[in-house]
Design a protein that fits this description.
2 copies of one chain form a homodimer. Helices cover 30% and strands 23% of the residues of chain A. Chain A has 551 residues and is of the alpha/beta class. Chain A folds into 3 domains: 242 residues, 3-Layer(aba) Sandwich (Rossmann fold), CATH 3.40.50; 73 residues, Roll (Luciferase, domain 3); 113 residues, 2-Layer Sandwich (GMP Synthetase, Chain A, domain 3). In chain A, α2 crosses α3. The first copy, chain A, is globular and about 75 Å long. At the A-B interface, α1, β9, α7 and β16 of A face α1, β9, α7 and β16 of B.
């Protein structure tokens, strides 16, 4: 009985035919480049002809090492529509990770931006890159680089015919691939089938996702190498929205200019992007009147950012997802009955990771797998499943053992769910401190400690403890002139006000800096390793390091 | 790699957990009945327990013979979630069709409304209904009827436990079933798999569909036995919207009252429903301030209705679909660049069947299968395909031969597509008149003729012609006192103004009435049969009955 397969191609077909003149705009080194969906469609078919000529066929992988621009976008439909897999590589990763990723994915053709060509050449390793039969620089000229065979995009695609008959693909045909950022170990490959990308696209289109319309002008500042710019280019195409790609390393001035010039209505990026823009706005007069919403993901949306955008008449839409989830899982849209709630309540909800989008399911479980109450208090690990959530990693049997539970993905995030259904991440499963059979959120303690003016950075880690399994210790960075003893006292008093006794750190260590991951986050894994075996616990550890009956 | 299966269950799960207090309201014979998604969820599990107790298991079909109310809605999730198929039967069909449908579907349990029980008893036939092991009247008491075994819903479901573990289902598990209305022959069964219903639900949620939000209050006036009330109850659940079911045979007064009392924001139904409401509004003061849009489907939306609702501040959303398409295929949303167009242009677009929704594809072909231009002029048959379009009928090999072309469904509709991508139905494939290798739209001629004040009804049919294959003849109903000769002259002059010479009917026949189908439409098939063999063509048939070079 079943319907036709779920593939990306009809989304492109719709944009090409119903919105042939709608623009696709990109900032490039040579200024703004403008094209239309009609021209874009032709380019995707030229690209498919070129790739076929280079020996790429169904099931092959094609890598990209690029910023956000129209040519990169051409691979988004051009590659999957021909039955191959578009594999976006994060160029900000350490060379070792890039080598691992290319070797693991066995990319046959690799597209690279001129501005990233040197980085790629630096990571180049003949053995790891053995599968790559063609490098294509995304410019008009191929620079002189020690990678080969090397050509430029103009030569590769330019003379190809603009017609190509897309093959009939099945729903489970591999279409995309991304790697997790690998903050804890080797990156893990996640493959996306056609129907995963199809259903993810539909979910983003819904009002419960982002509700994209043809009148929207969508600018993903989130890099296209971050889980396909959160899937936004696919959804924008399906909607017939205008798209704006901000090009290589967009600065706040570029983002502001593009919003103004292109009438951007929705943009999306990590919090630092928006902090940068807000700072820029302090000294510059920018017309943001067309901008309706900014989507914040990749890290928690600070309340101050939500408030400042609100003052500008721009709604912050906080979203959460994972590479394993294509990536969107929750969006913090305000529920109907919160639209008249006090502003503080609204802010609180908008600052959480949000509501699960239709089509997905989740549960929050404790160590024993028991489901926890939705009371905004109890926290446990978040498990999710659904049509666009992967059920395995690419050739990583050991991770497939640990990271999945039946059809459920273990997100590794420790969360609460409130009475309204909003999910809030309180910690990472690796970082949560297990004390006397109960869990303590390291992130919550860190945030509380960092609220003190004399604290520059703080990380709270669990330290092994004979009786209580683990106990929290705070690692703190301060300016040089701070009285550490006094600060410790103040912090202890402050935390005591807010948290149960058994949550209070048993030690306060002052260190020079907190180690960071490749993406700039605190690496508590490194911190734990660095201080392993050292005696970090004070002698007077509490009698009760788990909640007593009356807690 | 693939994600989890696409099933309806997560939509219910989301409503139950994130919107437990959102209301589900129904008009009943005993007044308004109110419940919540939390209670509704429990009822679906009670129902599943009851059905399991009655011997229903995965793959079985459960029939319904009911109006729009909460109990009927309970079967919508309760039956598919347990792996069975919910099969809604149109109680307005002739007895013979009902017998055929029940026998063909082999329903094991059949739910019937008290007000429809007599109709069912009339259609009851021991042999055709042999598969039915249990009849359940959707009231508190089972009336005295000659069908058995018979029980009432209260007894059937009442004492069942409210917990039931929904089985893990695959995407292709049969979940629903409807029959085509059978205007030309036996009804044809269309089965819906879980993923067809899942993807259709997602498409309705998108802004390109109907864009349903949790703040919406949705009232489907379209009967739940018409392709699952166009799938709206599923989409409303996924969105967490409030639902209002207008109960048995809702009159304009009931519809007006429910809109007012329940703050309905979106309603949906066939044109006659809205004509009735508009008439009612002439003499009654009704507060429609919450009503944002009415969805019109099932037949073309008259321009006057669009205009009148527009004056009331209510947007008419014209949609088109088919039983074979779950059913929605197009929605006449205004494109971004038409929002500032002249009102007349907007009206014209909103009156067409609309734009294809994301995820589907279509083409329009002539007799040779050649694709036609999108110019709003050329017309041909519409073919569609996509994840929620069926690829076969239930056990109808001969229809499967003729009604599909590879992965494409032949809709049987003759359409134009304009430059903006709006599809407009100009005729049915069976009714279009093939003259000299070119096509003439019978519907267009009928509409033009019916615009004359002296014409009550008109149907234009193709009559066999030796030289031109077919020629149009107009069958006309007038009031008794009309001068037919004068009228014929006026009509000929009028049509000559608007249409090429070869479109003009070769005959004008005056008859007493035009035969109708079970659903009240003109049955041109019956008309053709009735007048087969009669000489309906005037002697002076035109020299050119196909376009000349200069036409």
């Amino acid at each position: 009985m079943g319907g036709h397969d779920q593939t990306l191609e009809p989304f492109l077909w719709r944009a090409e035919n119903i919105y042939p003149d709608r623009e696709v705009v990109a900032r490039t080194h040579e200024g703004t480049r403008r094209t239309t969906y009609a021209e874009y469609g032709e380019r995707t078919r030229q690209l498919a002809n070129a790739l076929e000529g280079a020996g790429v066929s169904e099931g092959d992988r094609v890598g990209t090492f690029c910023w956000n621009h129209t040519r990169h976008f051409e691979t988004y439909f051009g590659v999957p529509n021909m039955g191959a897999q578009v594999h976006t590589i994060n160029p900000l990763l350490p060379d070792k990770h890039i080598q691992y990723i290319v070797e693991d994915a066995e990319d046959r053709v690799l597209f690279v931006d001129p501005s990233l060509a040197e980085k790629l050449a630096g990571a180049y390793d003949r053995e790891a890159f053995a599968s790559v039969e063609q490098f294509v620089v995304m410019g008009s000229d191929a620079p002189d680089l020690p990678i080969e065979p090397l050509t430029d995009y103009g030569s590769f695609v330019g003379d190809q015919p603009p017609s190509y008959e897309w093959p009939s693909l099945s729903s489970d045909q591999p279409a995309g691939m991304c790697y997790t950022s690998g903050t804890t170990g080797k990156p893990k490959g996640v493959e996306y089938s056609q129907d995963m990308m199809w259903s993810h696209t539909m979910s983003i289109l819904t009002p419960q996702g982002l509700g994209i319309e043809d009148s929207d002008v969508l600018m993903p500042v989130v890099p296209m190498f971050h889980v396909n710019a959160w899937g936004l280019p696919f959804a924008a195409t399906a909607a017939g929205a205008k798209q704006v790609f901000p090009g290589p390393v967009p600065e706040p001035a570029d983002i502001a200019r593009l919003i103004e010039e292109e009438d951007v209505t929705i943009s999306a990026g990590v919090p630092t992007v928006w902090l940068g823009l807000l700072e820029y706005l302090e000294d510059h007069d920018v017309d943001l009147s067309t901008l309706q919403s900014v989507v914040i993901g990749g890290a928690a949306a600070p309340k101050a950012v939500i408030e400042q955008f609100d003052d500008l008449g721009v709604e912050v839409v906080h979203a959460w997802g994972m590479t394993e989830m294509s990536p969107v899982g929750t969006v913090a849209n305000l529920k109907y009955d919160l639209r008249d709630a006090p502003y503080e309540t609204q802010l609180e909800k908008q600052g959480k990771q949000g509501l699960i989008v239709p089509g997905l399911e989740f549960k929050v479980v404790d160590d024993d797998g028991t489901e926890l109450a939705w009371d905004g208090e109890e926290f446990g690990e978040l498990l999710v499943r659904g049509p666009w959530v992967t059920t395995e990693y690419h050739e990583r049997p050991e991770a497939n053992e640990t990271d999945f539970e039946g059809s459920w993905l273990r997100t590794g995030d420790i969360v609460t769910v409130d009475e309204d259904g909003y999910i809030e991440i309180v910690d990472r499963a690796d970082d949560v401190i297990k004390s006397g059979g109960e869990w303590i959120s390291s992130q919550e303690l860190e945030n509380a400690i960092m609220a003190h003016d004399d604290v520059t950075e703080a990380a709270v880690i669990g330290v092994p403890h004979e009786r209580w399994q683990e106990r929290p210790v705070a690692m703190i960075v301060t300016p040089e002139d701070v009285d550490r003893e006094a600060l410790t006292g103040e912090l202890q008093a402050m935390l005591k006000e807010e948290y149960p006794k058994w949550w209070l750190p048993d030690g306060f260590e002052f260190i020079d800096e907190i180690p960071k991951t490749a993406t700039g986050k605190f690496s508590k894994k490194d911190l734990r390793e660095q201080y392993a075996g050292q005696d970090l616990l004070e002698e007077d550890a509490p009698e009760e390091a788990a909640p007593a009956e009356d807690d």
